[in-house]
Records
---
Amino acid sequence: MDLATLWFWIVALFFVGYFVLDGFDFGVGMSLPFLGRDDVSRRQVINTIGPVWDLNETWVIVAGACLFASFPEWYASLFSGFYLPLLLILLALILRGVSFEYRHQKDDPRWRRRFDTMIIIGSAVPALLWGVAFGNIVQGVALDERHIFRGTVFDLLNPYGLLVGVTTLLLFFLHGLYFVALKTDGVVHERARRVARLAALPTVLAAAGTVVWTIVIAAGRLSLLGAVIALGGVAAVSLIASVVLSLRGRDGWAFAAGVVTILTAVLMLFSALFPNVLPSMIDPANSLTIQNASSTPLTLQIMSWTALIAMPLVLAYQTWTYWVFRKRVRRSTIEAAPAHA
């Protein structure tokens, strides 16, 4: 495996980490109107991700930086063609982050409700648009011979892109419900399990449609078709397993199965994309591939040594953080704390 191919999969793994970790953050935010019937419940839900949400978001920053350094052509074409969706994602993430920090700054129910609404919007918009973006990356866009995007934002709202977007929205929502059920007690815990049961069927149906359609796309190009089928199968089995485990009250195992679902689903999309990084719908000869979009070998060598040194430290710190905040967020603790806490 050459360095360009290696860095394609490293970028894929960073996005896997981002979608697994920030995925349940999005799900927790989207669950607020279903689980937070009063302020104590809403604070309990939000506090499940309070210590980790900003750490989870750093994965997308690192993924974007690696994409820029290892595949500058891919980065340039992607950010010019997907400018509006990516801008909306950025604004939504800012909105959500501000809301987490400011909702408790004033003891006013209307003040908190406004920021709670922004948390919901700031969670749902990225959950949908990340799926739309990756659906279009896998399917391909209108790239000319200079690798310039010649379509419009409405071209991105195609059936496959929207299906992948709805799938990520529902998967992250279910993933977040599993996390809340794992991390809370009392009425919020029971509501999370109940809502997860209701969300299971539409999530399974949307995910099944995405897997089948992705396999069809992969079959039409020189991608890793066997890997796409295998990863899609594992994603389907783990998703169904997560639903069954949730129904049986095995919250930890249900969440773990949800992690496997998102991990294998993202790898399936990257496998369907390989060896391209951005296919052209105008002419396959215009496509950006791993080889024609990558940086120089020297750049990739320097990045490889940097990643080899830095990544174990990052993973160790994140593991330690989750270990420190591993306990449940109990309703009695929230009730005893002041409203601005």
---
Amino acid sequence: MTKVPGWLGKLGAGLTRMGKRLDERRAEEESGEGGDEAAPVPESVPPPPAYAPAVAARPDPAAAIPWGMRVAAEAGWRLLILAGTLWVLMKIISAVQLVVLAFVAALLITALLQPTVGRLTRWGLPRGLATAVTAITGFVVMGLVGWFVVWQVMDNLGDISDRVRDGIEELKRWLLASPFHVTEQQINDIAKNLSDTIGTNTQEITSAGLQGVTVMMELLTGILLAMFSTLFLLYDGKKVWLWVLKLVPSLARPGVAGAGPRAWRTLTAYVRGTVVVAMIDAIFIGLGIYFLDVPLAVPLGVFIFLFSFIPLVGAVVSGALAVIVALVTQGVFTALMVLAVVLAVQQIEGHVLQPFILGRAVRVHPLAVVLAVATGGLVAGIGGAVVAVPLVAVTNTVVGYLRAYSEEQALRAAPPPHGATAVETAPTPPPQAPREGE
């Protein structure tokens, strides 16, 4: 009987060790440490033979596409979204084209008159009175110029018609005597075809005249909108700009606040420089036309001044108009002399006046000018061609400033250099000249 307690103790110790082993195995299975052993293969599934080829796992579909194609796809859908946004924006602008052009014209006029308001304010005039005096004076001057042009054209219309008739007869005689072998019958046939074309298209010409009345009403509405917008921009331009800044997200507001004044200085420099260059062109070409005894010299000078606001195209159109008037009124020789005057003045403008007057404030590549004028003309006609170049110049200034601002912010946010990097980036003192005796 004395051996029974010892045997029971051994049995209890064995059961305890067995329980600990079961607990350890259960813990290993729960933690995954015991999953390294391969699971037994069911006897119903035979293993593959040794000569069977290995089958590679299928790759991820995204990894199967070449890297260049993935980059192109990522850029493609972003470009599609951007193109859709621009298309919707252009549709909105086309729907309110009159308002947009009137406001842009008001911006250009404000850029021209703003320095006068600031000067009158510094002289002691109240802001409202200075704005009223500047705006009224500017509008009166523009109105008088328009009235003078119309008056000159109407006053010389009879003389112009007689000179045109004589010029056509002289041109006819010149063509008959020219080496182009033009006969009088061919000239008469051309004149008869023109007359028949005008007679058959009377309805289209009448509808065009009615459409011209609609255009005149829209033009008058645009002029009134531009006048009111100019008044408010001259008086409350700073408040309007501060209100626009509130619409910009707070993170981008400092950059936009710095780009705005620089864009305004670029626009002001462009408008002032263009006005000065246009006045010089109009004065010198007008004097040349006047001394060559071409009629309507003053109205042609005003047209040259107005068309000078359209880069490249305006100079060609106004110069061609002056040459045509000289041709039909004074003959071929006078027309050639007018062409020489126009080309000489335009060469001086392109190579001397614009680089000297505009300087570096407005620097746009000629290709960008051509593309901007063409795009503006296709989108919004003459008004779009006028505002295209200043828009490109302002955009160039804004993009350049925002790029420099973002780079500066990135440098400020970067950690300061330390260790060997700090030594490499630290400014090195300039080399000193060796002393005497060294």
